[in-house]
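Re-running the complex after MR caught last week's input typo. The corrected sequence lines follow. Everything else is unchanged.
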Amino acid sequence: MFEALSDRLSGVFDKLTKQGALTEADVQAALREVRTALLEADVALPVARDFIGRVKSQAVGAAVLKSVTPGQMVIKIVHDELKTTLAGEGDADEGPKLKIDSPPAPVMMVGLQGSGKTTTTAKLAKRLKERDGKKILMASLDTNRPAAMEQLQILGAQVGVDTLPIVPGQTPVQIAKRAKQQASLGGYDVYMLDTAGRLHVNEELMAEVEAVRDEAKPHETLLVVDSLTGQDAVNVAKEFNERVGVSGVVLTRMDGDGRGGAALSMRAVTGKPIKFVGVGEKIDQLEEFHAERVAGRILGMGDIVTLVEKAAETMEREAAERQAKRMMKGRFDMNDLRQQLEQMMKLGGMSGVMGMLPGMGKLTKQLEGANMDDKVLKRQVAIIQSMTKDERRKPELLQASRKKRIAAGSGVEVPEVNKLIKMHRQMQDMMKKMGKMGKKGLMRGGLAQMLGGKGGLGPSGPMPGQAPGQMPGQAPVAPPGGFPGLPGAAPGLPPNLPGGLSGLGKKK
Amino acid sequence: MSFFSRLKERLLKSSSKIDEGVDALMESGDEGPVDAIAETPGTAASTETARSAESAEPQPGLASRMLGAVTGRSPAVEKQRVLDDEMLEELEELLISTDLGVDTATRIAANIAEGRFGRRVGGSEIKRVLADEVARVLEPVAKPLPLYAKKPQVVLVVGVNGSGKTTTIGKIASQLKGAGKSVMIAAGDTFRAAAVEQLSVWGERAGVPVFKLPQGSDPASLAFDALAKAQEDGADVLLIDTAGRLQNRQDLMEELAKIVRVIRKRDETAPHNTLLVLDATTGQNAISQVEVFRKIADVTGLVMTKLDGTARGGVLVALADKVGLPIHAIGVGEGIEDLQPFDPAEFAKALTGSTD
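Corrected-run output:
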């Protein structure tokens, strides 16, 4: 999702970060492109305009333009605004919780024809049943579309949720009444009313849904919106919210090919949170919506902003610079390795770092499968700590008996100690190579710039645009599995991953 | 009463975006920068009166007026405004807000500005020119569904989920039947629950036989069998429904390609028409839908549904501009008769709120 928007934006940001100093005109031009990108992604015009206005007012100030990394600052502002647009202010933790505590709690689904109400009803019922252990009753109030009731009945049978028996000829209000009755008699926790699709301008049908609302007094009224919707999304959302009163939004078809501007418009227009997103045709493909993650995804930067912030917080700049110099000379002993491992851990461990890297989102799942957990990092630090000072400085001292002692001291087996030593050796070799390659080597754009001089919060600068390009370039230098802390611990990973990761390690 | 007159009526009444937007645009010009006005000496007096009329009641911004409740404005004298950069931009935005897309909106706005830039223009003029411009883009693509002598003519109907394929098939079947054709429908959506039942109801309404297999059957073999049956029965037209699929779902698009391949085993020239059904509320994604479906299934024409809402289907203009596939018909309601031929001039007028 959001690929198209994401691509466009990263292009704009690339240009921004490549320039050292920014003028107001640069920012204006960039924002104009951002605006076009948003509109192309079907973000509603007023929302896009408002968004750009807010970013502009923050971004053109002297504080930003005179800062060390104006490009970064602008991106950060865009990111923050994106998050605000998606999540609304203040109630970020509201989350996808539904108010369904007092049984039987009515939940009403409304939306246009073909937005995916019936499927979403079934998905949500399944979710409530399985995750929250609720007893659910579903009722279709769709008396218009042929076979709509049968559709819900079939879906109900599939997910193992009861549906209200179909009585032909009843009006939606009568069905709602019957559902309420049945729900209280049958001891159901929640009853879900799947209303017919209706156009928000159809007076008759809107009156009908109002009547149903007055009858059922739903605790939650979820507006189901197709995320492929264009500029009309605002009209739909506004009208439904005004007439029926919406408590939350469900966006469907988020697995479509990535424009999803409707997601950005919804919150701004209705002021109501997006609670869930439908991400596939299968009945379990319903996800919670987290504004923060989505903002990251839209910017195509994973959550690079957080990574940069964290990196700045946790890395002592001087220490890192000293280390960088040592590495340039090809010196890299166990102490250096330990420092790297510890920095990794401070940044939130493997999964933390990976999750925040651009383009790594998909790999994170594979990583989990590959058993690359943070325990490995901890254990390796422990191994190093079990070495004497001499051994740490001169790893070549390590003989069989010393290894045995170290293994015993850190509570691991000797092969693990060997792995660490091997990893260290590989990294040391690499450092030497890089030292010879000098400025053309990996270190360029890496540590030195990242923390030195005017780099400031530099690392995120090259990352969104350049990281993918760099990785293949690094691959030949980095032996597979050269990632600090994880020697060959990545079976089944795509070939470019180890190379990319080793680069990451060294940058620290 | 035709859809367009109904639509036009509604547009004129309240909810037209462009119509109202153009009017708003005219007024916002009076609040605009002074230098723009200064450029055209001699009109200062009229501007002055307009401004004093304005200042009596401060107007909300263009956006809120476009979206918010409409107050009953009845301008006795038509507002005029100098067509400058700012107005051009606002015009562009107006077009974008009907899903025209940035590219097409920019082009059309530029065409309008040609020869008029720097002049004072009125709202009705802009609307008329806009309608002409849009109609000009749409003219070449307005073609009814072609009927061939070939029996049976196979019409494959494709689209994303919820775009209205099944309903459209029901309507087409009914209209063809009314025109004296013998029609058969193949219920090819074997995926969605109760899709077959839904189509059966439409078949009954239209008085047309529906060829069906149980849910979960292979849609390609269903299409093949349906074609065999249609050939056997000597039907004039075979309408094949398919399951909704998002165009970025590789597996489902492959399934569609297979349906086409298998149909061709039975009749090399089939499918004679492949209709892509688009939802009028869809935004710029429609362009990618058309591109991908065209590549996979050789789409020959478009049908746009749900035009009875507030969505104007402006993306059709972008599509006509960029892709140029024929637009056969539009859906304007849930009734069996609510499928109408596509009339570019009417559509353009409805889109822009032009009255003449």
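None of the earlier attempt is carried over here. Residues 11-141 of chain B form one domain. Chain B has two domains: 11-141, 153-350.
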